[in-house]
Design goal:
This protein is about 80% helix and about 0% strand. By secondary structure, the chain is mostly helical.
Amino acid sequence: MYTTEDQILIESRVANERKSAAAAYFLWFFLGWISAHRFYLGKPVTAILQILSYFILIGFVWWVADLFLIPSIINDKTDESRHRFARDLRRYAY
């Protein structure tokens, strides 16, 4: 599978790309009306949809739901990074 050095390399790259929950919540609180937190977390399509949905009041409910969704979005992005780095490492190792 992977050596210890490979795993350390993957985890260090994942840690460097990991988004800050504090920054996401800061953006959610102060700039949530323009979905800045979703842009920061790499979700531009849903950010635009959220902005558009404010006109029909669903956006506000979605904004409140994001309070609870931010940790799972960060974890999903971290897992995606981990898999991408592992795949890249496997590809270049052979």
